[in-house]
Amino acid sequence: MPIQDLFGQPLKAVNIGLESFAESLQAQGAAVQHVDWRPPLEGYVELTHTAAGVDIDAVNAEAVARIRSGRPLLVGMGVARDVIPGLGERMILHAGPPITWERMCGPTRGAVMGAAVYEGWAESYAQAAEMAAAGEFIFAPCHHHHAVGPMAGILSPSMPVFIVKNETYGNLAYATQNEGLGKVLRYGAYSDAVIAHLKWMEQTLYPALQAALKETGPIDLRSLLAQALHMGDEGHNRNRAGTSLLIRQLAPALIQTATKKAALEVLKFIDSNDHFFLNLSMPAVKAMLEPAEGLEGCTLLTVMARNGTDFGIRVAGLPDRWFTAPAPIVQGLWLPGYSEKDANPDIGDSAITETGGVGGFAMAAAPAIVRFVGGTASLAHSVTQEMYQITAGEHESFTIPALNFRGTPLGIDVRKVMATGSLPFINTGIAHKEPGIGMVGAGLVRAPKQCFEAAFQALRES
Q1: Exposure string for 107-136, b = 16+ CB within 10 A, e = fewer
Q2: Backbone phi, then psi, for 4, in 5-degree steps?
Q3: pLDDT(30) > 80
Q4: Coil, strand or helix: which one is 144?
Q5: Structural domain boundaries in the chain
Q6: Amino acid 25: pLDDT
Q7: Cα(129)–Cα(344) distance, rounded to whole angstroms?
Q8: For residue 32, what are the contacts with CB-CB under 8 A and spacing of at least 6?
Q9: CATH superfamily membership of 70-285
Q10: Is the dihedral of CA 402, 403, 407, 409 positive or negative?
């Protein structure tokens, strides 16, 4: 083609990297093929075997197989002090990696203060703060005790918890009952109304559910979550279908075992709280992930968690170590009267869902989630497609109808995150940065790259 004719041809472009460039060309009528490419993260080198000669791909395949084969069952309920290993008196579990009172963010402090009053350790919230500052409480991550907690994740000895058993491997996981949205303890709110609600959950909700579960027998949470994905949930911020399926399982037993008044209160509460199933999807996924911990040379994540100050990850092959970075600010949709200036950095153990292949990794199954957390339906689809690039396998039980029932991305591989520069995608709630206020929005965020750079360096050294 003569060069003078070349400039008369329609423009056809290939855009690599920043999608905004492609959008600008499309707005001008140009044909554009966008390639989602990022440079490898700093420090990346190919890593195929450990120093001891362990084949990393082989051990990662074993980890994926263990996670896939896990069958989490809701087997019962109990009071935290009676069932959670190592939970002592005056001990408070929290979300995310280890942290001291001095470094705790506002919502975590608020939740600790509320828990101390709830337990009767303090007569006022001010006294609770003084006691915490004086070192009168012991703090530990929920993950150190096979537990998970959304947002602040506060779990104290008197709180009722769900008991989830991985039938395949026998390990147990725990979580509290979900309080609902708004001004609740897990978002850092504390007040007489918050405490009264917790007491109702302890004295009415818990006994009713405990009796109903004895009547129903174990409930297969893997099956419920799989069905929920086919009904528009993603298992993190959209749990409408999961909660509805749970009600169907529990309602007959509740009516049979509880008083009419208690059954009515419990069913009305669960029906009004679409997030109730979150506190079951989280320990279900936790129970599925734990059997992968300790596999020598495994580069897959078993934990992503945030305490509102730090974002932390744990790697299966290095099970006793946390790799942390500052928790990022979430890009969100805001409740009336609030904005980004009110937001606390990312917080909660609920990213265990993404770690196990649902939540943000399954957004293609739940395009309606964007109405709660922001973004577009096309973003929900593209995020799931992107996450396949950083995972070692796919779920067999959790599938996505919109992707021809392809399994959700499973097994976040530190090596692939480093090689692609693509960071895990999380959808999440947002708490006010000050204690005592509660929920201010929900949104989207990516895990910070510093965690993966530090973990990758540790894997190379090991």
Answers
A1: bbbbbbbbbbbbbebbeebeebbebbeeee
A2: -70, -20
A3: no
A4: helix
A5: 3-35, 56-66+294-461, 70-285
A6: 64
A7: 19
A8: 12, 13, 14, 15, 22, 25, 26
A9: Enterococcus faecalis V583 domain (3.90.1710.10)
A10: negative
Domain topology for 56-66+294-461? v583 fold (3.90.1700)
For residue 15, the model assigns a pLDDT of 67
Which residues does residue 12 pair with via DSSP β-bridges, in sequence order? 31
For 340, residues 6+ apart whose C-beta sits below 8 A from its C-beta are: 329, 332, 334
Residues 239, 353 contacting (CB under 8 angstroms)? no
Is residue 17 predicted with pLDDT exceeding 60? no
Instruction: Find residue 399's DSSP bridge partners.
Output: 407
Coil, strand or helix at 33: strand
Residue 349 identity: D
Residue with tokens 């074993």: 62
* pLDDT(7) > 60: no
Pairing of strands 160-166, 391-400: unpaired
Q: How sure is the predictor about 141, in pLDDT bands with cuts at 50, 70 and 90?
A: very high
Q: What is the pLDDT of residue 150?
A: 96
The dihedral over CA atoms of 336, 177, 357, 20, expressed in degrees to the nearest 10, equals 10
pLDDT at 69: 98
- The residues, any chain, with a CB within 8 Å of residue 387's CB and separated by 6 or more, are 360, 361, 409, 422, 424, 425
